[in-house]
Design brief:
heterodimer, A: alpha+beta, Glutamine Phosphoribosylpyrophosphate, subunit 1, domain 1, Alpha-Beta Plaits, 5-stranded antiparallel sheet, B: mainly beta, Pectate Lyase C-like, 11-stranded mixed sheet, 2 helices, 11 strands
């Protein structure tokens, strides 16, 4: 069992409330996943940034200076609890990743719009430590995890990001992830962990890199991934949902003129403004839904 | 009429009040406000009271119902009226997966659509869905009737026992050992009664009946590879 929430704003007016709305949704899904929680927030187009994590706050001491010197370019750093968001010129991404790996930092995500915050702990505590409520943005995806396939660690928490401004959350378990991990590794999209969900994220990234649109990439999961899944995927300007053909993992969606929302259960949607007038439906099995700005 | 507000009262207290009603209670009509998708609302009732839920519910609403009438003025999450013994459950909106699963008796009415596995392993319950039902509905259904005014998804009635299935619209595919059967006068009578009790505006003659081909009941050595 896990919990998924997602919110894609169709109008700008609600943008300052994105973090607050997503946090309320996430907390209602605590009993579906009390192990760990994570959230991806898409703000406006910004400079290129890498989000990194360390259990030891001292790891961020002087990190920006060290990275600036190594890359020969200014690097800005914003430390939020166990995470740091590093802003740097995108052409230095590869070099920066090498330096960060050398220093034992874990990469959460990369892109010009998306920031990912995830940690072990109750969803409320995770959201509070990163100040998610105060964040604004155009769309966001959150996940509460009850681990089945790999250890309860920060790196095992969702969302998984395996491409620029791309992230994926998952409720379910995949059964062909080992074979798919080898295939994706050969194709140049190696998952970093032993987690099954990361394989799905790499799969989506590989399809997007090959030129598929979000709808095409999501459709591909139905043919190539085996197991139980409800996936919610974010891209810089898009938001997509797909369920496997058996569809035993719960899913609800709501749409108004202001937003499209996803929740594992209706409970997660009940706090949204205007929900009583929203179109609320259960997404069909083996059917791709996506929206783009 | 008694009102219980889930915004101010814990679910366990609400259910305990409803479950604690004596069979001869004078407080026969209850309203539950602010359900907000909560789980197991009005589950386990054993007296013939009427409960109106003002909104949408989560998992297992009216589960194990015995004699009560539960009316949800919204949609219901997975497992609504699961294992119902008797009584009536009416959902104004849609019902999520496995509505009425394993039910032994009573009537479940879904005025919108029901999703996958509606009536799975039903054992005597009657289910009337005004809209469509999803895939694997009436899987291993043993007795009772499933009436669908709209369409049915894939694998309707897979591994069916003796439940009677009536569909007015299209059936995407029939499951293993499920076949279309002749509509006889007793089926028209059964359907007339169920449609009337479910407030459904449809003519019994518009429906097709499906039932078990009874070929899976006994082991057949010639089909050993199929099991």
């Amino acid at each position: 069992m896990c919990g998924i929430v997602g919110l894609f704003l169709k109008r700008d007016a609600l943008q300052p409330q994105l973090g607050q709305l997503l946090t309320e949704m996430l907390i209602t899904m605590t009993d579906r996943g009390p192990d760990s929680a994570g959230i991806a927030v898409y703000g406006g187009e910004d400079a290129f940034k890498l989000t990194v994590q360390s259990d030891d706050p001292a790891a961020f001491d002087g990190l920006d200076t060290a990275l600036s010197q190594a890359l020969g370019t200014p690097v800005e750093m914003r430390v939020i609890s166990t995470h740091a968001v590093l802003t740097l010129p995108q052409e230095h991404e590869g070099q920066a990743r090498a330096v960060l790996a050398d220093r034992g930092l874990r990469l959460m995500g990369a892109g010009t719009s998306m920031e990912i915050y995830k940690e072990v702990g109750l969803p409320r505590d995770v959201a509070d430590r990163f100040g998610i409520r105060a964040m604004s943005g155009s769309h966001g995806i959150g996940h509460t995890r009850m681990a089945t396939e790999s250890a309860v660690t920060t790196l095992g928490a969702h969302p998984f990001s395996t491409g620029p401004d791309q992230c994926l959350v998952h409720n379910g378990s995949l059964s062909n992830h080992n074979a798919m991990r080898r295939t994706l590794t050969r194709q140049g999209f190696p998952p970093a962990t032993q987690n099954d969900t990361e394989v799905a994220a790499c799969y989506i990234s590989s399809r997007l890199a090959a030129g598929d649109d979000l709808g095409g990439a999501l459709k591909g999961t139905l043919a190539d991934l085996d197991g139980f899944f409800t996936f919610v995927v974010g891209t810089k300007n898009g938001f997509g949902v797909v369920r496997d053909p058996i569809a035993c993992k719960p899913a609800m969606m709501a749409e108004t003129d202001d937003y499209v929302a996803f929740g594992s259960e209706y409970r997660a949607l009940a706090t949204l403004p205007g929900i009583d007038q929203a179109r609320v439906w259960e997404p069909e099995p083996a059917t791709v839904y996506f929206w783009e700005r | 009429m008694q009102t219980l507000d889930l915004a101010t009262m814990p679910l366990r207290e609400v259910n305990a009040q409803l479950q604690g009603q004596a069979p001869d209670t004078n407080q026969t009509h209850w309203v539950i406000e602010n359900p907000r998708g909560g789980h197991a609302i009005a589950a386990g009732l054993t007296t013939p009271i009427e409960v109106t839920v003002k909104g949408s519910t989560g998992y297992y609403c009216a589960g194990m119902n015995e004699g009560a009438t539960v009316h949800v003025e919204g949609s219901a999450g997975p497992g609504v009226a699961e294992n119902m013994m008797s009584g009536t459950v009416v959902i104004d909106g849609d019902a999520s997966q496995y509505a009425g699963a394993t039910g032994h008796g009573g009537l479940l009415v879904v005025k919108g659509n029901a999703s996958s596995r509606c009536g799975i392993s039903m054992k005597g319950i009657d289910i009337v869905v005004h809209g469509n039902v999803g895939h694997m509905s009436a899987f291993m259904a043993q007795s009772g009737a499933l009436v669908v005014l709209g369409d049915a998804g894939d694998a309707l009635g897979d591994s069916l026992y003796e439940a009677k299935l009536f569909v007015r619209g299209a059936v995407k595919s029939l499951g293993a050992d499920c076949e279309e059967k002749e509509m006889r006068p007793e089926h028209i009578a059964l359907l007339t009664d169920l449609l009337a009790r479910a407030g459904a505006d449809a003519k019994p003659e518009e429906f097709r009946r499906y039932g078990s081909a009874r070929k899976l009941y006994h082991f057949n050595v010639d089909h050993a590879g199929d099991y």
